[in-house]
Specification:
The mean pLDDT is about 95. The chain has about 325 residues and is α+β, with helices and mostly antiparallel strands. The protein folds into 2 domains: about 90 residues, no CATH class; about 230 residues, Fumarylacetoacetate hydrolase, domain 2.
Amino acid sequence: MNGTPFKLATIARVNTSTKPFAALVLGDEAIDLSAAHTAYRAARGGPTLSATERILDLLEDWDANFAVLQEIVAFIKKDGVPAGAAVAQTGLRIFAPVLRPGKMFYAAQNFQEHVDEMIRAGMTPAAGPKFTGEKSTTVPYLFLKAPSTLCGAFDDIEIPRGMKKIDWEAEIALAIGRRGKRIKAERALDHVAGFMTTNDVSCRDLQIRQDRPALRSDWLGGKSHDNFAPMGPYLVPRAFVRDHMNLAIRLTVNGAVKQDGNTSQFIFTPEEQIAYASNMLTLETGDVFSCGTCGGVGQGTNTFLASGDLVETEIESLGKMRNRLVDEAA
């Protein structure tokens, strides 16, 4: 641990013209980061943040900004929340912490249980050698999801018209806080600003293209519908995540447990995914990695989401999301 733990969130006041803004979260209390920064500078005259309105901008100089954020938190702990900086707990909308990231990388079949269930469900060819988590003959399998699919941790998710097989995938996500190319796995965490809870919502109707069997997977149609990437409610700085390789993953639908796993079950670690992707293209601040789901997705039992269903997704110490499925608006 480095100082008093805190989280970051992107929020807005409902029924006002206020744009989404960055907030410090201490315990259950949200604090307007810009107002806190102004009070801290007036009282202490210490180093300044390079930005205060958007978490994405904070990531541009994350290492320096994180040190200043720690100073601001220490100031608040000593002197109290500055006047006008406290954010009322009611009448808020919680957005995805990092709005409009540059690139969103997703890991496909990165838990052996998920590999096996997708073979049984016919989503993966059964012919040929079966993948058993042995990494010596393979590399991470990543795909891109459109940043416009992002939504908040408590937003509704519309079921696309005519679609019947909407599925869930609880995952841990990370945000890049330092640009890099050809990053070594052993140094990859130096490039990570923090971690988040997410759900890689999937449309299985379109994920396998029956009209183009030779191509099989349609990652655009299967993954990139509006609001198919709920994320948050917080970005938890890496320094405050005790062990990203030993965090419980849990997802329920209408209170029934569907996924109950742990990040210790990763086949390829987040560090290995970062190394793999950065060998192809430069990783930039604000890029996001969603690191793969454990067993228990709906496709495994031919069980899918319907309008009215409530999906609760939680990664240990990172926060819980609650998203309700609704019919697409006419």
